Every structure is written in structure tokens, then in C-alpha cells.
Amino acid sequence: MDYFSGIAGVSLTFVVMMSVCSIAIFLLIFGLILDLRKWAQGATGYGLEPEEGKKGNIIAFIKAYWKQLTSHEGVHHGQSFWKSLILDVCLQRRTFRASKGRWLMHMLIFVGWMGLFALSGLMFAAEITHMLGVHFDIEAFREMLQFPNQILGYILLIGVLIAVGRRVFIPKVRQNTNSYDSVLLITLIIVIVSGFVAHAGRYIVAGVTDFSGLDMIFYDYKIWTLGGVQFFNTYVKEIALTHSVLALFIGFAFIPYSKYIHMITTPLTILVNKGGEK
């Protein structure tokens, strides 16, 4: 099986792409292990070093977390697990009460990011299943995912644009933005835009330029390829490869090494504290 992504017009094989994915997964797991070790040593926040001379045990830390999570003694809010998960983690109630604009930004990024991640995992599982000999129309399945993939991409893009706008037009947010935040945002925008361009290029290369019904959203290929400029037709495989690599390593493997880790630590903290607000 060949992927659309490639170099010099030649598509990469499934084995090559799976090797790249394996490297990304390894880096993610390795980073999470490093973070767990730091937390077990007493680090209390992103970028903070553990307490000097203190040794930590990852297993002991996980056991302690689980004990606190399931305990009903000495809790902060006493809210049920499911209520905390739905209201404070999924719906981000505390952020909504603090700032409606920031809540909208967070929700769009959260839904878009996690939705695209879920679709990627679903497609990966389908490809593995197909390779193992379970026969079904893999191309039809891939095509079925194109519409939700496009919608989620726009949801994520709008969320990121709101994040950029807040940093440009709100003085307090702008003052608290450092170069690290800016680089992350710019990189994320490149990932999203390259994804739209690569997706549009697939249709141009395949000669599919007429859509109807819900698929009319794919007419956006004219926007992302500037009306079908030859450059995008020539280098669409390279653009797709750039998107795949950046998405894997910036949007996935880089999570434990960056501020993106708050997507994991914040829910864990809220859940162990039994919620945020009444």
C-alpha cells in the first residue's frame, strides 16, 4: 500500500510511513515517562524542576494518584468523577465562567484537535485491519472520513485564529505571550494549512473538481491552491508529506516536551481534585 505523501512525485510506502509513526509514538511515550518521573520527584508545574535531592518512583506516583482519585476524604470539591469529567474537563466550565472568548477558543481547538486525532486513529486501525486480510473497500472508508475531517480541520483553524487574534488585539494577552508561544502557534498554523493544501491537491491530481451536496465544501480546494496554481499540483505530494511529518511530531510526539502537556495535566488535576466549581 502506498500513501499519497511522497518525494519527487513518488509516494511513500506503508512500511515507511509506519516507521515514521513508530518513531513519533516512541518519542511521545518516552516524553510521558520523563514527565511522570519529574512529577514523582516533586515537580509541580511545566518547566519547573523537581525538588532537589528528592527521588521519585513512577509506580508509586501512579498509585498515589489513583488512591487520591478514588478517595472521598480530604477532597477539594467532592464532585463526582463523571460530573467533573463532563462539566469541567469536556465542557471546560471554569474557563467559560472566567472568559467566554477564551472558552470558545479552547473548545474549538480541543474539539478540532481531538477529533482529527480520533479520525487518524480510526483510519490507521482500518488500514491495519485491511492489511491483515479483512476485506472491505478501504478507499470508500477513507472517502467517508473526508467530510468530517474537513469540518474538524476548519474548527481547529478557527480556534487557532482566535488564539492569534487574542495575542494581537488584547494587550494583556500579548504581554504574556513569549516567543515560545508564538513559535508553537505558527507551527500549528503551518500544520493546518498544509493539511488543507494537501487535501485539495489530492482532488486536483485525481481530476475530481466537481462536487455536490455536503461535498460542496471541497470546492475550497480553489482557495487552498489559489485556484489550482501549478505549483501545488507539482509539489502536492511533498506538501502532504510535510503535513504528515509536522502533524506527527509537532501535534503528537511533541506534547510531553511542550506546553501542550497541559492538555493532559489539566484534566488529571481537575479529576483528582473532584472538580473545579460548584
UniProtKB/TrEMBL annotation:
The chain crosses the membrane at residues 6-34, 103-126, 151-170, 182-205, 239-257. GO terms for molecular function: oxidoreductase activity. It is found in: Cell membrane. It is a multi-pass membrane protein. Keywords: Cell membrane, Membrane, Oxidoreductase, Transmembrane, Transmembrane helix. Residues 101-272 form the NarG-like domain. InterPro entries: NarG-like_domain, NarG-like_sf. One of its GO terms (cellular component) is plasma membrane. It holds the Pfam family Nitrate_red_gam. It comes from the Archaea. This is NarG-like domain-containing protein. The lineage of its organism: Archaea, Methanobacteriati, Methanobacteriota, Stenosarchaea group, Methanomicrobia.
